[in-house]
Amino acid sequence: KDFKSDQEVRWCPGCGDYVVLNAVQSFLPSLGLKRENIVFISGIGCSSRFPYYMNTYGMHSIHGRAPAIATGLATSRPDLSVWVVTGDGDALSIGGNHLIHALRRNVNLKILLFNNRIYGLTKGQYSPTSEVGKVTKSTPAGSLDHPFNPVSLALGAEASFVARVIDSDRASVTETLKAAAEHRGSALVEIYQNCPIFNDGAFDVLKDNEEKQRRIVSLKHGEPITFGPEDERYGVVSGADGFRVSKLSEVDESEVVVHDANREDPSYAFALSRLGGQD
Ligand code: SF4
Q: N or C terminus: fewer CB in 10 A for the chain?
C-alpha cells in the first residue's frame, strides 16, 4: 500500500524533515494497519505540514494543541494509530502544557518532535531549544534562556517510551520510529533535524563525534536500556558510583544492568536525562 499522498512536498531542499517523512512512509506498510485507521495530527510549524504528505487521515491543527486533540481522538478511538507531529517551538513553547500532560497520562500516542532549535516557518527566531547566546532576529544580543532538553522533560513526565535520533542516521530513525509505533502508550521521539536555511549545522558536532552519537538514547519502559551500534552495545549500569553508561561487554558481573525504567526513581530519570544532554 502506498502511504504517499498526491500533494507536492513543500519543505526547503535539504531539510531534515524529508528523512523522517521517507522513513515513516517506508515502514508504515509493514505494520499491517489500514490507511483509514492511521491519523497524523500536527500543530503549526514547518514539520506540521506532515499530514498533507501522508495518504492517511490527518489534521493540521492549532499551534501547540496537537497533543490535546490527539488525546481526545486516541481515548475515544483506541483502535486507531494516532501520531502527533510537532516541532520544538510548537511542542515546548505554546504547547508545553499539552505535551507534558499527554505524556504523564500515557495516552497511546506516537509523538514525533522535530527539533531544529529554531523557528523555521516564521523565518528564524530563537526557540525553546536554542542554545544560550543564540543570535537571531528576535535575540540580536544573544538568547539569555537556558534551552529545554526534551528527553529530560519527557522522562520527568514519566513517558513510557523516550528516544532521540538524528536525521543524518536514516536507519536509526526508521528503527526507532517503528519501535515507537509498536509501543502501546505515549512514545516521544525527539528528532534532531537540520534546518539548512535558518540553523544549518546545528547538530554537526554530533555527526562528527562517535562518542556523543552514542549518547542518543532509546528507552522503553520494561526493556533493557541499551543504545549504540548492534555489535557494541552500551547500556545504563547501576554500580557503586550510581548510574552510568558503559559498554555492556565491559560491565563487571557485580554491577547491575538496568532493565527497567523505574518510574518511581528520580535519580534514575536524572541519570538518563544526563545521557540525553545536548552538550
Ligand atoms: Fe525545513 Fe528550515 Fe525550510 Fe522549515 S525553514 S522547511 S525547517 S529547511
A: C
Which residues does residue 42 pair with via DSSP β-bridges, in sequence order?
60, 85
Q: Which residues line ligand 1 (CB under 6 A)?
A: 11-12, 15, 17, 46, 116, 120, 195-198
User: With a cut of 0.95, is the ipTM above it?
Assistant: yes
Interval between CA 245 and ligand 1 midpoint (Å): 34
Shortest-distance Cα residue to atom 1 of ligand 1: 15
Separation of alpha carbons 56 and 251, rounded Å: 46
CB 249 within 8 A of CB 232: yes
Residue 68 C-alpha from the chain's centroid: 17
Q: How far apart are CA 240 and CA 234, in angstroms?
A: 18
Tens digit of pLDDT for each residue in 214-252?
444 444 444 445 555 556 666 666 666 655 666 777 777
Q: How confident is the model at residue 264 (pLDDT cuts 50, 70, 90)?
A: very low
Contact criterion met (CB below 8 Å) for 242 and 266 = no
Q: What are phi and psi of 43, to 5 degrees?
A: -100, -125
The Å distance, Cα 120 to ligand 1 centre, comes to 5
Distance 266 CA to ligand 1 centre (A): 36
pLDDT digits (tens, 9 = 90+) for 89-108: 999 999 999 999 999 898 99
What are the distances in angstroms from CA 127 to CA 1, 136, 253?
37, 10, 44
- For the chain, domains (ranges, CATH) are 17-208 (3.40.50.970), 226-275 (no CATH)
